[in-house]
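Technical note accompanying the year-one report. For the benefit of new consortium partners, we illustrate the data format agreed upon in the data management plan: each record pairs a sequence with a structure-token string. No post-processing was applied to the example shown here.
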Amino acid sequence: MSDLRAPLRPKRKKDIVDFLVHFRWILVIFVVLPISFTVYFLTYVGDVKSAMKSEKKRQKEHEENVKKVVNRLKQRNPTKDGLVCTARKPYIAVGMRNVDYKRARHFEVDLAAFRNILEIDKERMVAKVEPLVNMGQITRATVPMNLALAVVAELDDLTVGGLINGYGIEGSSHIYGLFSDTVVALEVVLSDGRVVRATKDNEYSDLFYAIPWSQGTLGLLVSAEIKLIPVKEYMKLTYKPARGNLKELAQVYADSFAPRDGDQSKVPDFVEAMIYNPTEGVFMTGVYASKEEAKKKGNVINNQGWWFKPWFYQHAQKALKKGEFVEYIPTREYYHRHTRCLYWEGKLILPFADQWWFRWLLGWIMPPKVSLLKATQGDAIRNYYHDRHVIQDLLIPLYKVGDALEFVHQEMEVYPIWLCPHRLFKLPLKTMVFPEAGFELHHRQGDTSYAQMFTDVGVYYAPGPVLRGEEYNGAEAVHHLEQWLIENHGFQPQYAVSELSEKDFWRMFDGSLYEQCRRKYGSVGTFMSIYYKSKKGRKTEKEVQEAEAAILEPAEAEVA
């Protein structure tokens, strides 16, 4: 085992920003939470009104809105207007990365109307939805039908468009892969105004495979058809505690969902783990259960969705004291178990919000909307969080989880750590994220002939040195993390703050299909490239234009 002793660091002098962050809870309670609740309520009312419309009417409105997008694109003058991006405010995105590209001159296309569930097709087992439909909205519609998306990201506010253009994962991803792997078809408006339907086996199959992780830089997504699966009313959840070093905890985690004997009947429907410190973790496996089973005498039902309930990660932590236990959670409440406390970030935002008195009095207006938290923080606090706070996901091969846990401990010392497995499929085309070459020859735990088992190592919280008041260089730690990922065939979702240079960005991701589609579908010169959209820092118009020109020159030379 590696030496996990934390390096000695000098104490850091506090400044005015520390004071503002420490007392930020006042603004959150009296401003952010009330506005958040109002927004949630109005959004819910809008969702109900949308659901009351007939499918035919929703589809007609969709077609009209698509025409507006096409007409808007045709109004753009490439020589005068900036690059195309959506009209969403920069702080709306659910992520820590600064949306600085919208500070430069740009040509806005408003997609705000695209927030309707267009169709639930029970025969094809497909949901057709618009990009701003969020997870709370879709589960509210499907779970009463005993249906759900194959992969339901945990936080209510995460949208279909963000999960497809970016990345999305859930405890069922060890079976179905990432959110984008469950997509059946994509409706996209291209740079020239053409509206195309891309599937894995039609003439736009290259676009279909290139859009995930592209951050909306290939076209404007206006609807998606996504795989549905049958579900039951409850999730039977088993909480299993374990103790040992980080490598040993990683093995317990792998054994919880990837049986060494290969018996697929032992594979649960849902998996996640939380590592609470360097020697303790709780490993949860869930299987769908009927209402009749859940209500049998002696079974424990946990209505986790009630506002006064202990936060889920703290509830799971009880297994370290009481030992292994089993309970039944209503399926929709299980899907969104981390929403109210934003995993464990809620503890940093409101240090006392997990206390029983707060949960009973004000738990019903939790959580604060991430967009409002970002809108009210200002540059100083935003930079403070970038330097002294971590929100990163590491997507790495399953067999390297132990190494990743030790690396995160040494560089960041952040706990709890979230673990969630996912398949990374071998696809007909090499996409931006891809399994290791020849992985199937090694027959490692969790791997199959068609997919390599990866894991999302979720690192969300203030690092140990920051909590102890020590000096900490967040940018340097993230840089080390990114280099480690590159060396270990790992990937970093682009929602996170990144220190990657352009060269290292394309060492981490494969850009061949992406760049091919950028040229083929006219995205160059219309949409910003993914690196310049996701890189840290403000983007100047000159910088973006030079980058676009550098891409265009080789393409023009090839044509000549």
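Partners are asked to follow this layout when depositing records. The chain has 23 helices and 15 strands.
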